[in-house]
Write the structure tokens for this entry.
Amino acid sequence: MWKSLALLLSASLLCAAVWAESAGLEQHLKPGHPDSYVVQKGDTLWGISGQFLAKPWLWPEVWRVNPQIENPHLIYPGDVIRLVYIDGQPALVLERGDAGRTYRASPSTAGKLSPEVRATPLETAIPAINLGAIQGFLVQNRVVEPRVLDAAPYVIEGEAGRIVLGGGDRVYARGAMPEGEAFNFVRKGPLYVDPETREVLGQEATYIGLGRVVAADADIGTVFVSGAREEVKVGDRLLPTEERKVESTFFPSAPKGTVNGLIISVFGGVTQVGQFDVVVLNRGEREGLEVGNVLAIYKRGGLVLDRIAKEKVRLPSERAGLLMVFRTFEKLSYGIVLETERPLAVDDEVKNP
């Protein structure tokens, strides 16, 4: 009898847990959400998520991968996203459209022993957000230890004595540079220091251009500038081209752990932070941040004088926006501001959404 009661109780608790999980997800469905949505050119994953969910970053919680579809995490124009219920729990499922099934054939570069064909979808998968605001940061800029930049080869002269050069020119640089190697021209950017702990988090290496060493004599190398985003100048540094994989397609998601950090810088030479601005956070891979993580921005409360206690106190922070991490480094991250409810600034807080 007692065994039967225990089994019945366990089954009841399991059903209650399943119901609670389902109800927990269902409460995040947006009022008036569609039952299905046909993906259009120009769509973003963030925008589509907002069609179904009040909190778009919960997309992975309701995304049901169809193993029969190749690359089910990539979504193309013409695909249909449907809201269904599986075991009482809401789920978003993908029905592949013609664009995702239509492939372009091109010669494969994987091997040379026999001819092969590489097939790629005719359409490009939609991005998580509008990448135009962050395209230059996805691959080119990076953050390194200050000593890495200090020890890197540097430009000492341009051909014909010129000090400002561009694509198609040659420069002379001093340092260890094997002939034939490709390098990025970078310029020393801001030194990032944690405002709370004073720990050095890294130094910005701002991408200038791309070059290849065409000759090397002792510690002087001749470098051909194959392309430049802006003019290469004397004193610019050379770093080996980056090998790390940089994501350009990702899903919005909530961080796996607790995050408490600060906006420590904003790109563009401004102090106020607005929608689609790129910001630097004092939290990175070591704190568990991942590409696609969404964080809430809190306007930091001001310091005021408590006239009774005769001391300064900080007012509570108030939620004021959302950002998404699009690139991570060991100690810090880049994020793009997706939504703002009021003016933001450096030193505002970021937390779990």
In short: The chain has three domains: 32-104+119-126, 140-240, 260-351. Residues 66 and 290 are 24 Å apart (CA to CA). The chain has six helices and 24 strands. Confidence is low (pLDDT under 50) at residues 1-23.
